[in-house]
């Protein structure tokens, strides 16, 4: 019974870790709610009236969510600096509130400074947020000079409670966050393999659903891998350990994605296109309607389940003779003589299982250390360990790259955004005061918020639409909740805490949902301040719509960055990094020195993530340009396919110095030359459509796989796999040329 309970808790924890990598959303929500609860408890204990309780709750929320730095020491400094900023801001808000013109001019200047402060990194962003939000707080509670001493005390308590929640009750260190992210990676890896295990038996009516699940879980796994890579530097004290983790995470991700492709190919009459796993709504590959009926199908199902267990659990939780035998069996598939009697495509799946098991072993050793019992190792397992040890020993710390020159003056993104939001806020103030001389600041708040974490007119438009939709839904909920709560003060505060937690927990998932919780919470705050009415919440909708419109207008008129321009810039960046990774990997596989390929692959992934985020306005469901939306999705999916093959080439090239069975082949350099040229030609065309570029054509790279071309065994070395990755990359680059308007694509 106790074991069953523990197993249930473990499964629940794994689901939570997979749904919230690193528990970042959970921690943000709990920390904010804890800070507010402490503030309310302290202030209520000394008999503070309800309006100042509201002010304290808002100040605690701002002091908690504004700080985004990863190192606790830096967080403490920023929080300490934030207190005098907050006190100065509430003072000016109370003093200037009665002077309309001067107050408005100062508010615009404050908004400009807060946005411009982003150029100074996380600390500048945090202090700007605190300054703006506390000034907004002074307007919300209608602060006057007479109540300033009391507000100083309230804000001081709020900052002290925020510090207590952050550093004492719910501390979060970079190492702890990284550890939780690694567990999330394991959980998402296990989820992906669980979806892959459904493929062999999925019937014709189920295969499309399973394939869509594969796409979703493959994307989520990659998202977690990127999050880990972004926190390695802060979360580990040793650069060599960080690089080892980076390599092992990349190996596991590539092995898992490749296994899915091999399983699809085993069901199909032909090799599955990598694009199938990256293009949402892509048609089911031909010939995959029938389940796998091969004689080894039962063993395949068994071994997929076993691989999931190995991927999910740390070494200390999977010790035992039975699991050691399972691990040995899976690693044995890396040897040709251990493959079961099956069709060539199904044998490829078993080879993929062996490579995934090796990646699992490397991941376990990197995360948990050498805790496995090696006494039961088979020769195949011993060989895998020796390979991993040799790779670990060969890790070198690369030199720092020369930072790229940043734009200056009006070309600087922070300067442009500051000017845009200042103009938009000025319009919002003027229009907002026409709607309401008391609550005009809602329009300004919306204008401010739609500029946060956006970089193009399209992104601002979509964010404004989502905020308006969430506000409308929140007003409906707020009207109902206000009637339900009535004058029950502490019930209202309890619901406010619930909504704040939901707001922070849902923020990264849905901006519309976050806006809903914010507006519903405000309805309760108005109830607490005895200023609630249905007209007030309807006015909020009007002010929100006005603020969003002012933000979009300012973004479109003042130094505009159109979505097309931004996506083209990011697309060129992705193509440049793709060419860099491909050139470096093939150079190393050809006998040269490829440089820091793992880091280059990470930069490619990050550039692609930036592009994917920037194209959201073009792929949003409300866009009227359906054909363009489909074209953008297709291009992004092709780039994800290219990135997968680029990562795979880089990972294979990294093995070359430590694996005596892998030999460099100078002929690969020739196969790569055309691909890199065509990538650069597409990038040049995107950067300048008038540029005279020409795609090179020639014989298919697949022709190098024909007998007699490269005299090597079919499996057990890299040339065959490298050429297949190059072939798929060549095809994907050729596919990119068509939707991007580059003529003369390479022949197949």
Shape: globular
**Strand and helix order:** HHHHHHHHHHHHHHHHHHHHHHHHHH
How far apart the termini lie comes to 61 Å
Mean pLDDT: 83
Subcellular location: Cell membrane
Domain Integral membrane bound transporter: 428-553
Keywords: Cell membrane, Membrane, Transmembrane, Transmembrane helix
Pfam families: FUSC_2
How would you summarize this macromolecular structure in one to three sentences?
With 748 residues, the protein is an all-alpha fold. It is built from 26 helices and no strands. Helix 8 (174-196) runs antiparallel to helix 9 (207-235), helix 15 (413-435) packs antiparallel against helix 16 and helix 17 packs antiparallel against helix 20.
Protein described:
The structure is a single chain. Helices cover 71% and strands 0% of the residues. The protein is built from 26 helices and no strands. Helix 10 runs antiparallel to helix 13 (344-368), helix 11 packs parallel to helix 13 (344-368) and helix 21 (563-589) runs antiparallel to helix 25. The longest helix is centred in the last third of the chain and has 30 residues, at 626-655. It is globular, with a radius of gyration of 29 Å. The chain starts with a helix and ends in an 11-residue tail after the last helix.
């Amino acid at each position: 019974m106790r074991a069953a309970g523990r197993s249930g808790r473990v499964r629940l924890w794994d689901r939570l870790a997979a749904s919230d990598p690193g528990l970042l959303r959970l921690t943000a929500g709990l920390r904010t709610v804890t800070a507010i609860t402490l503030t309310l408890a302290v202030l209520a204990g000394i008999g503070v009236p309800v309006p100042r309780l509201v002010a304290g709750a808002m100040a605690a929320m701002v002091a908690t969510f504004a700080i985004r730095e990863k190192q606790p020491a830096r967080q403490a400094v920023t929080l300490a600096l934030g207190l005098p900023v907050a006190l100065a801001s509430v003072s000016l808000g109370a003093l200037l509130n009665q002077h309309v013109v001067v107050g408005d001019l100062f508010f615009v200047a404050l908004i400009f400074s807060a946005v411009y402060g982003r150029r100074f990194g996380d600390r500048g962003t945090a202090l700007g947020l605190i300054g703006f939000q506390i000034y907004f707080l002074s307007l919300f509670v209608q602060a006057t000079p007479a109540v300033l001493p009391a507000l100083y005390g309230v804000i001081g308590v709020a900052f002290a409670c925020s510090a207590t929640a952050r550093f004492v009750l719910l501390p979060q260190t970079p190492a702890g966050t990284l550890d939780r992210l690694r567990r999330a990676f394991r959980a998402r890896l296990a989820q992906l393999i669980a979806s892959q295990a459904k493929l062999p038996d999925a019937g014709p009516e189920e295969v499309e659903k399973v394939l869509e699940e594969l796409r979703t879980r493959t994307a989520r796994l990659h998202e977690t891998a990127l999050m880990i890579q972004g926190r390695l530097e802060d979360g580990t004290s040793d650069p060599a350990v960080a690089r080892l983790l980076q390599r092992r995470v990349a190996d596991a991700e590539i092995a898992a994605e490749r296994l899915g492709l091999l399983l699809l190919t085993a069901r199909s009459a032909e090799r599955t296109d990598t694009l199938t796993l990256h293009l949402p709504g892509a048609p089911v590959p031909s010939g995959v309607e029938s389940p796998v009926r091969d004689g080894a199908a039962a063993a395949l199902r068994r071994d997929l389940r076993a691989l999931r267990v190995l991927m999910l659990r740390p070494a200390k939780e999977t010790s035992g003779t039975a699991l050691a035998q399972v691990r040995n069996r899976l690693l044995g598939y890396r040897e040709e003589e251990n493959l079961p009697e099956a069709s060539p495509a199904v044998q490829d799946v078993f080879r993929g299982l062996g490579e995934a098991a090796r990646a699992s072993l490397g991941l376990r050793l990197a995360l948990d250390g050498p805790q496995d019992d090696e006494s039961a190792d088979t020769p195949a397992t011993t060989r895998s360990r020796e390979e991993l040890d040799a790779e670990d020993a060969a890790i070198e710390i690369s030199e720092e790259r020369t930072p790229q020159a940043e734009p200056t003056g009006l070309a600087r993104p922070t300067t442009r955004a500051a000017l845009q939001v200042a103009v938009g806020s000025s319009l919002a103030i003027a229009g907002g005061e026409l709607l309401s001389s008391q609550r005009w600041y809602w329009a300004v708040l919306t204008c401010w918020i739609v500029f946060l974490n956006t970089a193009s007119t399209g992104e601002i438009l979509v964010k404004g639409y989502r905020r308006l939709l969430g506000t409308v839904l929140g007003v409906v909920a707020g009207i109902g909740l206000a009637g339900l709560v009535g004058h029950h003060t502490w019930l209202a505060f309890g619901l406010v805490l619930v909504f704040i937690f939901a707001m922070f927990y849902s923020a990264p998932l849905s901006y519309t949902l976050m806006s809903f919780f914010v507006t519903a919470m405000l309805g309760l705050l108005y109830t607490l301040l005895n200023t609630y009415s249905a007209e007030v919440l309807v006015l909020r909708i009007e002010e929100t719509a006005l603020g969003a419109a002012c933000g979009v207008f300012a973004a479109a008129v003042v130094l505009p960055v159109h979505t097309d321009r931004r996506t083209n810039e990011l697309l060129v960046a992705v193509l440049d990094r793709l060419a860099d990774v491909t050139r470096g990997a093939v150079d190393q596989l050809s006998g040269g020195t490829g440089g820091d390929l793992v880091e280059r692959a990470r930069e490619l992934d990050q550039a692609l993530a930036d592009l994917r985020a920037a194209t959201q306005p073009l792929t949003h469901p409300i866009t009227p340009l359906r054909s363009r939306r489909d074209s953008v999705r297709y291009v992004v999916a092709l780039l994800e396919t290219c990135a997968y093959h680029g990562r795979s080439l880089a990972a294979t090239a990294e093995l070359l110095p430590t694996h005596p069975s892998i030999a460099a082949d100078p002929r690969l350099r020739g196969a790569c030359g055309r691909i890199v040229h065509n990538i650069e030609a597409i990038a040049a065309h995107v950067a300048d459509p008038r540029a005279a570029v020409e795609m090179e054509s020639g014989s298919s790279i697949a022709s190098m796989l024909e007998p007699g071309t490269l005299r090597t065994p079919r499996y057990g070395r890299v040339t065959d796999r490298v050429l297949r990755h190059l072939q798929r990359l060549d095809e994907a680059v050729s596919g990119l040329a068509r939707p991007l308007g580059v003529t003369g694509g390479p022949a197949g």
